[in-house]
Description:
heterodimer, A: alpha/beta, Vcp-like ATPase, Chain A, domain 2, Rossmann fold, four-stranded antiparallel sheet, extended, disordered C terminus, B: alpha/beta, about 35% helix, flat, disordered N terminus
Amino acid sequence: MDFGRPMVCNPGVVAKSNIRLVPETYLGDDPLDILVCQASNDAAKDLFLGNDNPSSDSTKKDTSSEPTNDTEKHLSRVDHALYAEHHLPAPRPTIQPGDLVVVFESFNDLNFVYATPNEVFSNRNGHFPHHDFISKPYGCKIRSKNNNGLGFLYLLRPTPELWARSLPHRTQIVHELDASMIVHYLNLIPNMVVCESGTGSGAMSHVILRSIAPKGKLHTYEFNKIRADKARVEFQGHGLGHLVEVHHRDVCGKKALLNMNQQESNQPAASDETETDEIKDKDSADDGKGGFQLGESAAHAIFLDLPEPWLAVKHAAFTLKTSGRICSYSPCMEQTQRTVVALKQYGFHSIQTVEARLKEYFVDEVEMEAPPTVLPAIPTEETATLEKERHVAGGVLPKEDSEVNSDIENAENKLQPGAKKRKLCARPFSQMRGHTAFLTFATAGGSMPRIPDKSSM
Amino acid sequence: MTSTATPTPFTTTASPMDANDPPPTLRPYDHFLLHFADSRQIFAQAIPKSRHKSPSCKTYPPCKINKRTYATHNLIGLPYGTVLEVTRDGLLPLPEGQDLLPDEEQVREALLGVTSLDGDAATTTHQSEMITASQDSTLHITPNDNRNIHDTNTSQTLTQQQVTSLLSTGTDGCQIVAALISNSSTFASKTAFSQAKYLKRKQMKYMPRCRIVRVTPESLCSAMHAKDSRRICNLRSDTLGYILSSANVSAGQRVLVMDTAVQGILSAAVTRRMGGYGSVLALFEGQQPSYLEVVQRMNLNVMERQSLKWVGMGEVFGSEEEKRRQVEVLRDESGNILDVEKRDREGIQWPCPLMSHTRNYLLNEVKEERKIKEFLDKRCSRFARKLTRLSMLELREFVASCKERDENGNSVDSAVDTTMENDSTTNSIPRGIKPNGNSGTTNPIRQCDSIIIATKYDPTITILRLLPYLAPSCPFVIFHEFLEPLLETFRTLQNYGTQGDNSDPSMPMMCRRNIAINLRLTDTWFREYQVLEGRTHPNMTMSQNGGYLLMGTKLCPKTGTNEMDPETVRMLRAKMGPTRRPKKGGKEKGGEKKDGSGGNDKRKSGGEDDAKQEAKKAKTSS
């Protein structure tokens, strides 16, 4: 995807500004010139370090000590040359062989292809040779080769949202509104280190990757080996391999927990045994101990999409940096409750559980007619006789002139100009996704137990 | 200068942005938020005691709680997440591990010390036991309920005057809470949950605490929404998150933001999400953006500030002719355009030596060293600002480089002909093209990767004028406080050319021209929960509206829309046999299509069916 591409850098106006630290005697030995240099250096520090400016720290007591490495590191950043503008190169305007293309068939039918010469994409509307796709611009409309070209589809540039709607579902995927909220509430910004468990179909991973590019790292954990391997291949294929590391691992460490339970009870239940065997079969690379294996305070944010997220909370507390954010995604309130208890136990604060739903509207132009105003005809002596005669004759008597006239009048009434009004209207669709999951967010506290202890399990 | 004009691979240059750790502690001049247990959210700034000059320092009250101003210098260096106690002496940081609500233990201890007004020590002890009981309460049968509690407003024997006198004598909040509990005749007969709730309420009032929270797009938006949601057109935080995702905002992109209706929250949020990579074109009205204060609260660093480019709305919506005229005036005899701002900027040296008259002024008139320093500080900051600012002409050139051009290199003025507002004479694909001839726009075209609109201007006209700035197959999102204005926009984007009374009702569906597909009109429903053992439920009040969104994907204007003329379509249709469409008004029925969906022209799907299909799909995938 586009955000995974290497960036180009241009000297922006800041990089050209030549603002930097200068020796105090740069302009000469005159005391006034020295003051000018000092003021310039201060302004440069303010500009580049902003609130990080070590010189403005003087109110703090502990900075009175000799300049630390930290200050030097700070000051080395006061240099215009470091602040070139980085941006993604202009997106490739046309489709090249091998590109991932989202095929927009209709609103609910999205698909994807890797443009490959000599292959054909077929759906109910016709056959579309990939050959037609190549070197066409993204956002174009393609006509089918058969069916007289009546069938068509659109080719779109992939985004994580479009990908989520077209991808092969290996598991239930995180809904796009939930995914957007997770990234937003986890405060993800470029270059962060994020952990995700489990990977599932990889839809959420793509959304996270977009917000941590270009130099961030996503560690994604999946206990199902097949899914992990598939995801790895997929990320590579989308040009995101440098941003992600797929771990085949159960972060909860259920295997170890189950073993412990067995040792404690000394009489393992039959069901337990089969379960552990199953895990053993799947997990060859996984040591079964759980945890993220990244060391202490390694991640800025953690996203848990697990059946038993509370088991992973202590590992998350160990792996998260202070003030790092965590999100747990659980469809059931019971899971959420247990997770909240675990979060409190491990020193997380600002715990917030929310739920969001997407309501979509159907737009239509509605034609509204004024109610009819034609009065019902009250029978008169004349019409009554006529009717009687007609009845006697079997209803075949010709209409009289007056009747014909009134028919025309009625027709005119119906066609009264201006009686119809057209209005744009909207209503929500009659069905919606009623529930996806409860999202629990929390912030890691500074005083949480750093080493996962066994007693609290 | 190390950087060259030619683009170099990103990996060769190390950037200070590479380690993009959010600062763990409060730095001087940082803006931050204070979150209270009663969900109040207050903006504050850390201002050192001796006020330094700083680019971000304004005469902004450091922190104002309940009409009282508190100093914030003692908070500098504290980690985010620290809990503060609001006392009469100021904001006092509490040790780590403290929560927003004080420990119940504390009140219990105080309760043991307090004798109620009637001197009945026995009840007090009993009540302190009650609090203990409330802690390990689960779903057992509760001994108490409200069968004997009557709302006569007489249960509290402590009078208002007594409480105020306690407050004015500087009694500890904890003591007051204890006194209130011990003087409440009904406390003991309340259920454990009810007691906990009572205690919480009293603690929030008499032992106020708050937490230092980082300003992020999320916390910024929720704080502003909580403070005055009308001012930001009800933009709720979850909607903001959804906008950022649907607009595909990521590092390195070029994003056009027009957010005059939401106080610049979107510009700030997009800038932070992009982390200083790429460019944000933030449109503003008037001479300068009126909501810089909001953007400043994000504590943007130099890279982020550089990526955020403020563009006057006239640059985008103004006529090309007028722009050209403005530039022509600047042309000198040899035909070159003189950019005064740029010339001045390039003339500034760093550090800038003093001119002789300034030197004289400082030596002879200012004299005092402190004042000279102040003068020089201001002078250098001014130069730094000037050196890091694009000139108006450079900015104009930059904006022009984002705009679609036709075959002749002239910029396209609108996604469709601007005469559409008056009357469209033909149903052909019109395009308003105005001769450009501005030789200044030499930059290669690099259209925007997404457009985000949140204004009170007509969304239809706005998006049609902005679409030429958007690259094909890229998303746009329009936020609006109301639903109705977006309906027209939806219709226009979906069905341009067949709307209005001028359109030919017999024209086949196939000939309508959609400018964008994947159109969705949505709003979000957002609910918070109280999760407590045995007491889990949604919050009693919730926000009913977070604003409406219209989003879509732009189609390629050349190859993405209908390439067939009505005659060909009729011919094709005749070949294919009779249509299944009812005779009456193909257009109205066509409207049932949810958007410009592809597929077979003959096939027709109702929007309702779409929703059902989607629901079915969701069911099968779960």
